């Protein structure tokens, strides 16, 4: 799918994408800097979108790692499947709240998310937080891009440590929450 069609999908489903543009390379790079992908065997991405974050993960992950990308837009899923046909990259068109049903009992070493939690109904949002915090392998982080610092308090209910950083090199500027 070409970029113009991806942008059309972004705008026509703003309630589920929660964004007005895709993540910048600078934001993706900063987000990835908070995770150690060397040696990670299971990586989960919640909200694959146009693949901005997925591309960054694929560049840095080990060749024998599995990446599970969850996205609810069928158009985005179709585009992601074309771009990432590798056997170890699993594009799943389902809600992030169901990710545990798709990872074959694995415990993710890291979870990346760009989900628009401010727009997700509370019950589903709480389920995503809970499943994410319970299923992470050891001290692996849950790393979230968001546009409101107030989300830090929601994450703090499920993770013992939440560190926030800020980047201006994105439109709009964004927070990165690193939760352990």
UniProtKB/TrEMBL annotation:
Residue stretches spanning the membrane: none
Domain Methyltransferase, chain residue ranges per copy: 43-131
Keyword line: Methyltransferase, Transferase
GO biological process: methylation
Molecular function terms from GO: methyltransferase activity
Transferase as UniProt keyword: yes
Gene3D superfamilies membership: Vaccinia Virus protein VP39
Record flagged with keyword Methyltransferase: yes
Pfam families linked: Methyltransf_25
InterPro entries from the UniProt entry: Methyltransf_25, SAM-dependent_MTases_sf
Tree of life domain: Bacteria
UniProt name for this protein: Methyltransferase domain-containing protein
The species this protein was found in: Litoribacter ruber
